[in-house]
Amino acid sequence: MELPTQTFRVTRADLVRYAGASGDFNPIHWSDRFATKVGLPGVIAHGMFTMALVGRAVTAWAGSPDAVVDFGVRFTRPVVVPDDDTGTEIVVTAVVREVTDAGLTRLDVTATCLGEKVLSQARATVRTAG
Amino acid sequence: MPLDQSFVGRTYPPTAPYQVGREKIREFATAIGATDPAHHDPQAARALGHPDVVAPPTFPVVITMAASRQLIEDPALGIDYSRVVHGDQRFAYTRPVVAGDELVCVNTVEDITSRGGHEFLTTRTDVTTTAGEPVVAVWSKLVVRGEA
Predict the structure, then answer these.
(1) Quick check: A24 contacting B, CB < 8 Å?
(2) Cβ B56–A48 below 8 Å, yes or no?
(3) Closest chain B C-alpha to A41 CA, distance in angstroms
(4) Does the beta-carbon distance from A22 to B93 stay under 8 Å?
(5) What is the CATH topology of the domain spanning B5-20+56-144?
(6) What is the pTM of this model?
(7) Alpha helices, H only, chain A
(8) Which chain B positions have a beta carbon within 8 Å of A45's beta carbon?
(9) Per-10-residue mean pLDDT for chain B, 148 residues long?
């Protein structure tokens, strides 16, 4: 079963806010000068910010903010965030892989940016009330 | 300089307790756009059976990233952090993190491998309360990019 697609807009302001809240002040997430110096196309989103947005999608699908029991991803491609008002967009989809007798639902999640996958092996297990 | 393989299996001493604050959870939830009342309103969290506001699923990284400085700054392990990128991340929860938790991290080096000129360091961080109650286990794979 495929779950409803969820999209998340990401701007530079979001990255600054996430840096402050998470304590991850790596300059590749706020300085084009630094990001390009280390070979990136520009400022990129924190991988953990992308994962947090996917976490929002997962809890929304599960219907409860405390439903996640296991959540893992592999970061495969950076999410480049341009310095403008629109930023970029992350599109999150998922399919239900398994529903266990113990009331757990396993999801295979896909996250894309500009049509390219930014995560692989993204999986979540959620507790579903039943 | 390659990472020291003898670190596989090594466990570091527990970190100093991290006090999970209600405002920190609200700040983190706001930063990721998580508007569910259980992240912000203690009453809403209590209605779900929690003692105080509930952290979003990836919140523990705030604690484990700080705790991982133990490894990153260990000169004997020899990580060049300027060449590190994040490979994998996983959380396995016993229960969600809630405001009021006092959490201790124990870092273990699970694996060190080398492939294509890059090195891969997998760590597991067991996050427990100061009373020893398990809360979440966190795996992180760091990629140390080779010098081209």
Answers:
(1) yes
(2) no
(3) 15
(4) no
(5) Thiol Ester Dehydrase; Chain A (3.10.129)
(6) 0.96
(7) 12-22, 32-37, 47-62
(8) none
(9) 87 97 98 98 98 98 94 90 90 98 98 93 98 98 84
